[in-house]
Amino acid sequence: MNPEALQQLLESVASGQLTPTDALDKIKYFDFEPVGDFARIDHHRKLRTGFPEVIWGLNKTPEQIIKIIEVMRTRNPVVMATRIEPNIYQHLKAQIPDLRYYESAKICAIQPDTIPQVHTNGKITILTAGTADLPVAEEAAITATLCGFSVKRLWDVGVAGIHRLLSSWPLIADADVLIVVAGMEGALPSVVAGLADCPVIAVPTSVGYGASFNGLAPLLTMLNSCAVGVGVVNIDNGFGAGILACQILRLGERLKQRIQS
């Protein structure tokens, strides 16, 4: 249940438009709601963390995903599922006509025509070392966008042609949070962090030859970065990077409001 829906429910009870019994029926699954015998939807998550639960699509059947979406959409204006392959999306679309698919990110979502923007002026900029890192970067970008944040993209600026990165310095300098996605040896986040004055979220990808060990090599490079201000998420975890960037900006907005008050 999102805060706005809960507030409206309480106001309806206070004004007499809704009886306490009816209100109790609406909030009986306030903390979680079972879906069949395979899932428990955490309706309370947005109240706790600021963002609703997101469906992990991999290893779930289309029927399970459909039932989960149908329950979640009753409480949230935006419902998203990650790691959805195109063939799975076709099954979902047949049952949920208004479901939208972001193929590069492998994310599907139910969303209003205009996603409400979070009240922040913060800017997220996402960089990739190469074109092969785009799926993970797009997962981060679409996640942040569906959460209501503004995202800028800067693709294919890896260290093998570092002049491409340096020519984009104004875009880097303008960011409040940077997400840097790289495979191979994973050097790009260290270079970017040496240029930027904002947090850098490093995302290792499983892109690379055998000695990259499916992303382990860039993960270790990023963890061992000598540049300051670098935080690292798991291999190929664009979703986690997107959510973390949003949390950083939300915290900044909250601190700003405290100072103003």
Task: Provide an overview of this structure.
With 261 residues, the protein is α/β, with parallel strands linked by helices. 41% of the residues lie in helices and 16% in strands. Strands 8-7-9-10-11 form a five-stranded parallel β-sheet. Strands 3-4-6-5 form a four-stranded mixed β-sheet, with helices on both faces. The protein has a two-stranded antiparallel ribbon with strand order 1-2. Helix 4 (62-72) crosses helix 5 (86-95) and helix 6 (134-146) runs parallel beside helix 11. 39% of the residues are buried.
Summary keywords:
261 residues, alpha/beta, five-stranded parallel sheet, four-stranded mixed sheet, 11 strands
Structural class: alpha/beta
Indicate the radius of gyration in whole angstroms: 20 Å
Q: Number of helix segments?
A: 11
How many beta-strand elements? 11
Give helix % range.
40-55%
Mean pLDDT score, rounded? 88
Shape: globular
